[in-house]
Amino acid sequence: MFQWHEVTAVAEYKRLFLMKTSSSQLILIPKRYFTFENELHSFRQLVTEYGQAKKVKWQS
């Protein structure tokens, strides 16, 4: 478990999201975890809202 303020960076890759925490841990979230596109969109919104915007890197 973690708090949003502990997330120091988030990056989106082709098949997963990578979240770095303040305790130098990595959290890998496979995109296959999300069944529908709207779930991916909701997750991106959560990260944008609660994460540190300058340390969020979305796949282009």
Architecture overview:
- The chain has 60 residues and is of the alpha+beta class.
- The protein is 23% helix and 32% strand.
- It has one helix at residues 37-50, and strands spanning 7-12, 16-21, 26-30, 56-57.
- Strands 3-2-1-4 form a four-stranded mixed beta sheet, with no helix packed on it.
- A hairpin with a 4-residue loop joins strand 2 (16-21) and strand 3 (26-30).
- The longest helix is centred in the last third of the chain and has 14 residues, at 37-50.
How does the SSE layout of this entry go?
Elements: E1 7-12, E2 16-21, E3 26-30, H1 37-50, E4 56-57
Parallel strand pairs: 1-4
Antiparallel strand pairs: 1-2, 2-3
Provide a quick synopsis of the model.
Helices cover 23% and strands 32% of the residues. It has 60 residues and is an alpha+beta fold.
